[in-house]
Automatic annotation (TrEMBL):
It comes from Halarcobacter ebronensis. Its main location: membrane. It is a multi-pass membrane protein. The chain crosses the membrane at residues 6-23, 35-65, 85-103, 124-142, 154-173, 194-212, 318-341, 362-379, 430-447, 459-479. This is Membrane-bound O-acyltransferase family protein. The keyword Transmembrane applies. One of its GO terms (biological process) is alginic acid biosynthetic process.
Amino acid sequence: MLFNSYEFIFVFLPIVFFVYFYLNSKRLTVGAKGFLVFASLFFYSWWNVVYLPLILSSMLFNYVIGNSLAFDNKRGINKGFSKNTILTFGIVCNLALLGYFKYADFFILNLNLVTDIQVEPLNLLLPLAISFFTFQQIAYLVDSYRDETKEYDFLNYALFVTFFPQLIAGPIVHHKEMMPQFASKWNLVKNYRNIALGLFIFSLGLFKKVVIADTFAEWATNGFDRAVTLNLVEAWATSLSYTFQLYFDFSGYTDMAIGIALLFNIKLPINFNSPYKALDIQDFWRRWHITLSRFLRDYIYIPLGGNRKGNFRTYVNLMATFVIGGLWHGAGWTFVFWGFLHGVALCIHRVWQSIGFRLPKVIAWFITFNFVNIAWIFFRAKEWDDAVKVLSSMFSLDNVVLSPKLMFLTKVLEIDNIIYDRVFCISEEGNRVIIFLVFFFTIILFSKNSIVKLLLFKISFKSVIFSSFLFIYSVFQLTKVSEFLYFNF
């Protein structure tokens, strides 16, 4: 079920909200918690009920392993097994499940390419949210191993894993972040300020998704998937359209998830903080998909040795972490290369820092943004040829098409092969593309982000009108329902 759908907004969410708080008002706390788990599993099953046993089995397995890690080695099922053995077994099983569904066909196709063996692909449909609930539960097992969390109630654990606002595309939460909130007696009753905050940020996220992101999506799809060739302007418009689509799509999802959770008095961790304002690549990863960055740092980079074993190992660990991060996003060499690019950029940034050089902020931002924009091309492209098509046209002067109104630029640019004709052959909305890119570029760079707006939010007539406008306008745009991009990962 999608957040940006009529059935979710007008049926599922209101029913879950009122039943949950009704049960709590009758002091049926366990019943309310059980209902929320049931509703979350229903939300998950709406997409494909076939995979409901998968998430249930995964939860039960990790609950048992987590409990065994939390117990003393001399007690219970830990007897005869070391904590290291149990943790390794749990992580391997989780990765095996993820690997089978997400990477089996990728492995088979590459095996067929390099050998004479022709294995038939399994053509498995990727279970929704498997990457997110797998990483979340791996983090839980490691936290249990470290004695940082203990959970002996399966219902509590099920709620931690399945809580529907963050189930499908994050944020990747820790047990210690969530369960104290569900246990708090103050969170068991309706909080009208939280409701107002939740509706405000949900409306903002909905607007970002269905009005802004889905508009850029059409132009990005035209350039990447439909156009055979691109001129210089079309190529830049294509790459920037996807860069902005991903920004507003992911930012919109994050806002909606935060808003829905606030309705239930739950505060999800910040997962998105104006990443395109970053002045270096390290700063970018402190702002983009913050909980994934936290996971990669705490459960991959640091266990590999982090920066504690010399410069060479530090660079190797950075590269390994981001190649894994790229592969986590998708089973394809374009994703691996995207992760590799970011790993290289972080290594270069570390060297740059060690030398002590500092660039002016404008230049630092310009380099960072353009690197991120170029790297996103490989993230978006379905095939290498699509990435090469866009990237080569962005930096080629062999196919420059400008509006006839700009004919005076010929002498200024000293380029002989400029064609003055219709610029956007891949879209009927050439002027609108440029206007949207310029306008939302300005919004991204100079406006307050959603988190700041949430902190500054005050219930007033003006805020009610603003939220209502965003919500109503967005609802009228729901005729073209589309998935969030991170549902694919």
